[in-house]
Amino acid sequence: MLEIKNLTKSYGDVLALDRFSLDLKKGEVLGLLGPNGAGKTTLISILSGTLGDFTGTASFLGRDLFADRSLKNRLGVVPQDMAFYDELSAMDNLLFWGGLYDVPRAELKKRAAELLELVELSARAREPVKNFSGGMKRRLNTAIGLLHRPDLLLLDEPTVGIDVQAKVSILDIIRSVGAAGTAVVFTTHQLAEVETTCSRIAIMDRGRVLAQGTLEELVRIVGERDVVEIAGEFAAAAFSEAVRDLAGARVELLSAADGLASLAVADTAEVPRIMDRLFRRQLAVTDMKIKTPNLETVFLKLTGRSLRD
Amino acid sequence: MRRLLLVLATDVRRHLKSPAAILVFMAIPMVMTALIGIIFAPRTEGKELPPIPLVLVDRDKGLASKLLLGSFDVDRMKKMFQVTVADEAEGRRRMKKGKASAMLVVPERFTLDLLEARTTALTVVKNPAEQFLPDVVEEFVSTLAVMLSGAVQAFAEEARGIRAMIDRPIESFPWDKLGPELGRAQKKMAAAEKVLNPLLLGLKEEETRAAGAKAQVTRTDIFSMMLPGMAVMFLLFIVQTLMRDIVSERQDGKLRRMMTTPLRPLELVGARLAGGWVMGVAVLLVMVAVGTLLFRARWGTFGYFLALAAAASFWTAAFFGLFHALVRNRNQAGAFAAPIILAFSLFGGSMMNPEAMPKAFLAVGLATPNRWFIDGAALVRDGKFPALSLLVLAGSGLVLTALAVPALRRRTSV
Known about the structure:
By secondary structure, chain A is of the alpha/beta class. Chain A is built from ten helices and 14 strands. Chain A has helices at 40-47, 90-99, 105-118, 134-144, 164-179, 191-197, 215-222, 236-243, 270-280, 295-303; strands at 2-11, 14-24, 29-33, 55-60, 63-64, 75-78, 152-156, 183-188, 200-205, 208-213, 226-233, 251-257, 260-265, 284-291. The longest helix of chain A is centred in the middle third of the chain and has 16 residues, at 164-179. By secondary structure, chain B is mainly alpha-helical. Chain B has two domains: 2-42 and 219-412, no CATH class; 52-154, abc type-2 transporter like domain (abc type-2 transporter like fold, 3-Layer(aba) Sandwich), CATH 3.40.1710. Chain B has helices spanning 2-17, 20-40, 63-71, 75-80, 88-96, 110-115, 133-154, 156-167, 175-196, 219-243, 245-252, 254-259, 265-295, 302-326, 330-348, 359-365, 369-381, 387-412; strands spanning 52-58, 81-85, 102-106, 123-126. The A-B interface holds A 45, 48-52, 69-70, 72-73, 75, 77, 79-85, 87-88, 92, 96-97, 99-102, 128, 144 and B 3, 6, 10, 13-14, 17-18, 252-254, 256-263, 413-414.
């Protein structure tokens, strides 16, 4: 349905997208996971036609996404901004934004009512949106992108700044939209969101896809090894030096920063050896955790940094 | 076109749903017009003088002085004079305190002198502290004296008869002769009334003015002259506020979202310019209605005024379309717009009468919509077609539109 090839975009000397390529099938929900500055919003902006001056191609439904204006009727976009009119009601907003697409008026009204039901705003459909909570506004923002039943839905961090209940509601909507056959791309830096919502995950950093696949496929990148996370009062270089001769098939240094380091171990029996080495080198350890492999450990291995960095 | 109309209709609805800014901008010119009109317009009511305080000193205490005092008690005289009967010392004291404009002294034997057709005199003592009102009293008394003299001469025979009867003791008063004497006098009065009533000669007031001098303006005229200037100044403020959406929607992400839909940039630009135009005309028409209701302002032929309002709103929408294509953000728009509008209003004649403005101001004013709108409105008020104003506003509006459309398209493409 969507085939992106070698998308490249620079802001001056900064490379925001670096030969980015991706395929997406009908009904697939793709989570684009990456830290701030990874290039997620740039990708969404290019695909939605609001950012120019790039190279590369994107084919959507067999046509050139960047040349064929009629494809805008098949594309839904949910921006990170709450982009609607506060002084209008939820229903009036839906009718206005939906009216910009080629949807017959009668059908649009019916669809708007359906969506208000879906995002649980029916009871307040006629109330000015300025009275809504942040979560309600996010749900309305999402509903606007679905009015014209798009074949591809692009969501840019749709759960930013809302409470858990509203977040769960929006993620449910994304899952149901995917189940109904719409291909979905949504960006986030919340690991739990992509783990629970997406059928496929792409990990992005510095404008490139580092790895993509299902959660299970990605976890296999780290292997079956546990991850030992060690916190303490040590320098990154001193830690790396201390565990250097332990590294091998059974122990792998995943990341080392001042005060925090991670190692993959084939067996938890390796942990005492590691701790002994650190004590011998007089590196102060204040905390130690053993984690089973998950998306976070995959991300850590691929990017060398935590999502919070 | 369908999308253009949808954006236009939604814009109008949005602004009508939260009309606070528009209402404030519409109320300000009305309040300013009312205040300036009340302060500077001549009063049409209260032209009559207040009653003139007059002290009457009655040294005669006879029939004629009583009749004289009674004549001040009729309604018409009450409006002119407020009479206090006092002695001379009290009269002078009241004048000194400013409580009396003049003192009328009726001399002793006044009644007898009149009955005997002897020369007598009423004395008017004028308050030296006042200039105008004592002269009115003096003129009035001199007129009264002429009338009394005439009456005494006309009724001299009857007066002598009555005088002769008065001199007799009361017990020998010839009551039987009093009737015929009064009857003769009554017949003379009736004859005189036939001649005098109705009066053949009337008095008509007419305002005169020197050649070339202007007619005195009424308060309604002041409002009618001021309102167009105020209206166009606040039209600029209102349209500017409405069209600020162009920059604010760029900042808050709505523009980006619109551009993800099939809406074309040119449709959006057209909707924004048309929205400013439509709202401008509507605002001006509301101001006309309110100005007519509140101030009874005259606007002239409605069709001509509508054309002028449409041309001025078109100019304003095009100008602020271009303006918002050039500014970077909402704050910059706010910072620059107010000084521009105030300069237009100052040089264009919204803040002062163009006839009282320096020549340099007048020359600069030709580049403002205010000047052309005010001039056009003055012509429309006089029943004339404002051809030149329409031509200038519509023509320059077209030029501004031609500049605004590509500039806005560039700003719209994100």
